[in-house]
Amino acid sequence: MNSNPPSAPPPDLRILPTARLRAHEEHDSQRSQPLVERLRREQFVINPPIVAPMDNGEYVILDGANRCYAFAELGYPHSLVQVVSYQDGTVELGTWQHVIGQWDADEFIQQLDQMPDIELTEGQHKNAIAHVLFRDGRELALRAPVATTHERNAALRHVVQIYQQNAVLHRTAVAEPERIWTLFPDPVALVFFPHYRPSDIIAAAKENAFLPPGISRHIVHGRAIRVNYPIERLRDTATPLSQKNNALQSWIQQKVANRQVRYYAEATYQFDE
User: Fold this and answer.
1) Contact status, residue 81 vs residue 13, Cβ threshold 8 Å
2) Do 73 and 36 contact (CB within 8 A), yes or no?
3) What would the pLDDT profile of 4-44 be if each residue is shown by its tens digit?
4) Strands 59-63 and 91-95
5) Pick from 10, 56, 29: which is nearest to 256 by CA?
6) What φ, ψ does residue 73 adopt, rounded to 5°?
7) What value, to the nearest 5°, has the Cα angle with vertex 125 and ends 106 and 63?
């Protein structure tokens, strides 16, 4: 019996109008502003954003919100993206954990306690909008009077803003606290979030009910990376979109013909981000 996992389908790379790409989360200003300046000088799109179609002719950005924000800020009419679907089994939706570092734990608790409409209780609570586990073993449930996912998103944005402005924030898929405390420098707390459904992500994009940056985690089987597509072709305002996409497909075919596209089935760690 063959124990190898099935191959992912070839990536669906397209050039789409930048204005039709809708975020489901706030962009991270600490990342997006430097990215704007970098892309102003950049020659290639390296890792295309991941998007999924919505029923209104627009696309929700699943991964790459900061890159799409930068393209919009720069006035680039078109963006190179990889189109995926929640329905075809190639996308898994999860959540990141936030590691809070280089801050005082008691000050963090004090800031949370001063938030209006946020109630702190010890331990876990099934209706919490988030849980905070501290390195010294304390655990707090963050509760808020929210009735909808949109209200929960708004409350979470306010919570995340507190440590975005005062601490060092790392995202991680690691959920075991004992590994967190040794893996990251100066960690003081670990924040866990509730899970989301694909319908929550699409509704957040359609209704501008944004999640905080770095909570939703989309795992895409067959993600295209190291594409290195010329940005000048996307900056071009004279060439029609259909012609740009025809040129993209010819470019991909040439890459395949020259054996410059390789599929890796195994999970990898990349050390040059």
Assistant:
1) yes
2) yes
3) 445 678 999 999 999 999 999 987 766 777 788 888 888 99
4) unpaired
5) 10
6) -65, -35
7) 80
Residue type, 129: I
- According to DSSP, residue 237 is labeled S
Considering the domain 12-93+218-257, what is its CATH architecture?
Alpha-Beta Complex (3.90)
CA dist 239 and 166 (Å) reads 46
Cα distance between residue 4 and residue 41, in whole Å: 42
Q: Quick one: which H or E segment has residue 93?
A: strand 91-95
Residues 6 or more apart whose CB falls under 8 angstroms from that of 68 comprise: 18, 21, 23, 49, 61, 79
Distance CA 14, CA 252 (A): 11
Q: Where are the alpha helices (DSSP H) in the chain?
A: 29-41, 65-74, 105-113, 149-166, 177-183, 198-206, 232-235, 241-257
In the block, residue with structure tokens 């991964």 = 63
Q: What confidence score (pLDDT) does residue 36 get?
A: 82
Residue 132: both structure tokens together: 């905070």
Amino acid identity for residue 152 in this structure: R
Distance (Å, whole) CA 83 – CA 63: 11
Structure confidence at residue 239 (pLDDT): 96
Show me where the domains of the chain are located: 12-93+218-257, 97-192
Phi-psi region of 226 (alpha: psi -120 to 50; beta: other; left: phi over 0): left
